[in-house]
């Protein structure tokens, strides 16, 4: 039995927890554990969903989900193994109408700095960075092609 953390106001309603029924539907898609048992799948997957749903950095995960490094490592390892893709495909195949599969990502949030890039004067945009890189390359090339011989007082090379 999982006990949800409490605050002075009651249960922490802002945290997301997968139900036991949801976990039962997901378990067939999990890879087999070899050797050391995995950390609680429900806690870790709930934390991964919470992080992705709220657009947070891994290190900003609430402590109730466990160490942020555990959440990231599980997400990375299972993503590389295709576990999450198998979950989506498997759940969609069991849907009553599996002819149309659609995942709506309109709920995703942009990083908190994304909205301010264009608003600030002199903000670094990708075009500006690209332009500065070309200026830097031109200066480097100019330096390489310049003669290394001393220049006389009248501007002629001392070669």
Instruction: Write out the strand line-up for the largest beta sheet, numbering strands in chain order.
Output: 1-2
Structural class: mainly alpha
Unreliable stretches: 1-12
**Counting H and I runs of at least 4 residues, what is the number of helices?**
5
Query: Can you write the helix and strand succession as a string?
Result: EEHHHHH
Q: How can the largest sheet be summarized? A: 2 strands, antiparallel
Shape: elongated
Mean pLDDT: 75
- Total count of strands: 2
Fraction in helix: 40-55%
* Straight-line distance between termini: 86 Å
What features would you highlight for this structure?
single chain, 159 residues, mainly alpha, two-stranded antiparallel ribbon, 5 helices, elongated, disordered N terminus
Brief description of this entry?
With 159 residues, the chain is mainly alpha-helical. The chain has helices at 20-26, 41-54, 68-81, 83-93, 126-145, and strands at 6-7, 10-11. The relative contact order is 0.07.
Q: Would you kindly provide a written description of the structure presented here, covering whatever features stand out?
A:
The chain has 159 residues and is mostly helical. It is 42% helix and 3% strand. A two-stranded antiparallel ribbon has the order 1-2. The radius of gyration is 27 Å and the shape is elongated.
Topology, element by element:
Elements: E1 6-7, E2 10-11, H1 20-26, H2 41-54, H3 68-81, H4 83-93, H5 126-145
Antiparallel strand pairs: 1-2
Helix pairs in contact: 2-3
């Amino acid at each position: 039995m999982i006990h949800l953390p409490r605050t002075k106001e009651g249960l922490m309603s802002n945290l997301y927890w997968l139900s036991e029924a949801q976990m039962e539907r997901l378990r067939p898609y999990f890879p087999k554990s070899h050797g050391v048992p995995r950390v609680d799948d429900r806690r870790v997957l709930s934390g991964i969903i919470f992080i992705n749903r709220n657009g947070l950095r891994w290190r900003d995960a609430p402590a109730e989900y466990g160490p942020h490094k555990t959440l990231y490592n599980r997400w990375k390892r299972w993503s590389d193994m295709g576990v999450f893709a198998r979950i989506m495909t498997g759940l969609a195949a069991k849907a009553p109408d599996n002819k149309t599969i659609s995942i709506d990502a309109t709920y995703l949030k942009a990083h908190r700095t994304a909205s301010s890039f264009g608003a600030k004067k002199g903000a670094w945009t990708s075009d500006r960075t690209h332009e500065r890189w070309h200026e830097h390359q031109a200066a480097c090339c100019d330096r390489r092609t310049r003669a290394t011989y001393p220049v006389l007082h009248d501007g002629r090379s001392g070669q």
